[in-house]
Amino acid sequence: MTTHIQRGFLLFLSFWLIQPLIAQAALDPAKDPKYCGSCHKRIYKEWSQSLMGQDLNNPIVYQFYTGTNPQGKKDGLGFQPMMHGKKGDCADCHVPELVLEKHAKGEEVDLGIAMKQKLDYGISCHFCHSVADVDIRKDSDGRYHTRIFETAKLGPPGTFHGPRADARAPVHGSKQSEVFKQSRFCAMCHLNQEKFLSISQYDDWKQAYESGKTDKTCQECHMPLLPGKHKLATVEGLDTPERVTRAHSFVGAHDPAMLRKALTLDLKPRVQDGKLVVETTVENVGAGHKVPGSGPIRNVILKIDATDASGKPLHYIGDKRGLLPPLAGFGNPKTGQRDPNDWGGMPGKMYAKVYRSKPIPKMGNKPMVGVGGFLADAVVFDTALKPKEPDHARFVFALPENGGEIHVKARLVYRDAFKPLSDRKGWKLAQREMLSKSQTLKP
Q1: What stretch(es) of the chain map to CATH 2.60.40?
Q2: pTM of this structure
């Protein structure tokens, strides 16, 4: 026979044990991408292998939002610690359906909790294809309205939208929406208005499109056409047609092929007036928006190496603006040690949109440089490459003392985050080679 205390303890224990089940039960299984994948097998496989499909489990997103390192310890670097525990708008694009649901109740969503407890299906089939239209507009001050509950206009429950007028399904309603063919659809998340337009891809694309510098939509590049014809769905007992269709792989800066075709690099070294002069031209020929796009911690680095016949670096004697900034990596400030990817102070150029914060007490009351849009108080520089606008740079070196051959190499690399931020967060440096050119001179 149990006592009142024992019964109370058992009741508490049973309540505590079923909490995860309650949280899981709150998710509608009909909104699970796996549910959609039971018919849309190919599309589900493409989506699930894409960064969008894996976003809810992205450790970088979680750590940058919560201010934690890969070991789960608080490091003070991220949205919540820097914004004094606010929830913010980060959840809008990572768990949009949860944000819309909570906003209707006057509540905000903590992205860290949503990701950890899996309270949403993330950037899911159900959310995207529930969108009937997208409203992108500015206020009288020229500032965009970018909250998901301002931009996403959902259709009636049970009806899914897409680009085809003749789509039919036995288990749900289908309706055509032209916005699925338009870049405006992607603007729901690839546009974020803070003090500055910190994520500006749609606006960058719109300017390029209207000026004739690109003729492609976001979908044409990031959802490429598949060769041949394919079934959009496989339903038992139903003869579904094969069609020309686009991939749901959402290729971007993490795809080597996309990086290789985004930019061109021209290298022209010459000996002039007893000096080595290296001229470069970098042009964005393949992206309809600035490169790099997305968040303002991403950067592209042009690195110039000039060496003598023995491999010894030549002395740089050019303008100091031809040297890479500390954001390219300056090593350990305490020990002075640098690793091979610390390029700050070396010849080259950084292409990025760099913001500075207000003075931060915990940082010695000094501003931070290279911050996310949520901390941005001033623009330090914006050298991100606009479509079809070549960037020219010039680097000058002293010739080898003993003469001989000169080897010049120019590299373009893409980094997901500034090197000092990666170091302090304990992230493995995400660096991908884009292009390289080499020449040998025999003066």
Answers
A1: 259-441
A2: 0.92
